[in-house]
Design brief:
This protein has 350 residues and is α/β, with parallel strands linked by helices. 41% of the residues lie in helices and 15% in strands. Helix 9 packs across helix 14. The site of iron/sulfur cluster has 10 residues, from loops.
């Protein structure tokens, strides 16, 4: 049995954003107000929270999880953390997630995670390179990451939020990080290619020529490789890139953003699968699901879409497994980045 079978159904989450709450300083790339579209007023904290809850709850009546995102939850005052757990419990949520920085995980927080049934803690682990982390204004180290995962994973699921193309980040370190993190007991990952947001330190670095945006093709290749490594190792990839609903024209100065970024990455993966000899066989409806971003997969490999009602169409996890096994577990980082995939990326009209 391959590790990939650990995949679980994703639960429906109602997000509550706490932009910059608990953040000692601002990381160079971060502008939570722009990403989340939320600005907290100083007047009535719980009214703001409640407004967010009411806004999101209109979209569904069967949310299973409430999640506190957008800040550094572990650095909030203990009394506020408790109020937020109790707020969630008051809404009948027994299933709570939060995001926090690795160095905030203490015995006290672990006790709360257990007591208040926090079922997923997402750690901002943008990179495992201490120098990259420090130059982006973060204050954790790889040791903090190891310790935090060890402490949380005994009592709750652990997620990580990684980045691609950061300031002072070696491009391929993302793939090495994926290999390392996949060996730890991690349940979920979000992969964020770096975007230069307005009113950030990164914007000034970019304007002064101190930061160069990674080539989009390279970012897609790295995202695809990281996706395959995480998924093959049973880790759910919850997100690839910032949300599509961000107002890009007003808020994004430059960077690795496309509203269909995740779709493009999955298209690249499926194209690579077909290049390696795979095919999509199944009912017309099922194989149509693999037409890919702007139907590129289907247009490019018409003869590899075979209608056959007698078989179930291959799952995306099987696609990942097929590639992983033929790529020798990506032992050689450059392998995926060479001729075949370069050819594939050229076909993507992003
Ligand atoms: S990245 Fe996280 S820790 Fe850094 S400023 Fe943004 S919310 Fe705070």
């Amino acid at each position: 049995m391959t590790p990939i079978n650990k995949n679980d159904k994703t639960k429906k989450i109602i997000p509550i954003f706490l932009p910059f709450l608990g953040c000692a300083s601002r990381c160079v790339y971060c502008n939570q107000n722009l990403i989340t579209g939320v600005k907290m007023s100083d007047d009535d904290f719980f009214k703001d929270i409640n407004d967010q809850y009411n806004r999101f709850s209109k979209f569904s009546n069967n949310f299973e999880v409430i999640a506190y995102y957008g800040g550094n939850f572990g650095e909030l005052d203990k009394s506020l953390r408790i109020e937020l757990y109790e707020y969630a419990n008051g809404l009948k949520f027994n299933n709570i997630h939060f995001s926090t920085s690795p160095e905030t995980i203490t015995d006290e927080l672990v006790h709360e995670i257990k007591k208040y049934n926090i079922t997923l803690v997402e750690l901002g682990v943008q990179s495992l390179d201490d120098k990259t982390i420090a130059s982006n204004g973060r204050s954790y180290t790889f040791k903090d990451v190891e310790k935090a995962i060890g402490m949380i994973s005994k009592i709750s699921d652990v997620g990580v939020q990684v980045m691609i193309g950061m300031y002072n980040q070696a491009a391929l370190s993302v793939i090495d990080d994926a290999k390392i993190l996949s060996k730890y007991p991690i349940k979920t990952v979000r992969i964020y290619p770096t975007v230069v947001l307005k009113d950030t330190v990164l914007e000034s670095y970019y304007n002064k020529g101190e930061y160069t945006v990674m080539d989009m093709s390279e970012s897609i290749l790295i995202s695809a490789t990281a996706y395959i490594i995480y998924r093959y190792n049973g880790i759910d990839v919850l997100r690839l890139s910032l949300p599509a609903n961000i107002d890009a024209d007003d808020n994004i100065v430059a960077g690795l953003y496309h509203p269909a970024y995740g779709d493009i990455v999955k298209t690249a993966i499926a194209l690579y699968y077909l290049e390696l000899g795979g095919e999509f066989r199944g009912s017309r409806k099922d194989i149509y699901n693999y037409s890919g971003y702007r139907s590129i997969i289907k247009e490019t490999y018409v003869n590899k879409f075979i209608e056959d009602d007698s078989v179930d169409c291959i799952s995306f996890d099987k696609v990942v497994e097929f590639i992983y096994k033929r790529s020798e577990g990506f032992e050689d980082n450059s392998r995926l980045l060479k001729s075949e995939t370069a050819k594939i990326i050229k076909k993507l009209r992003y």
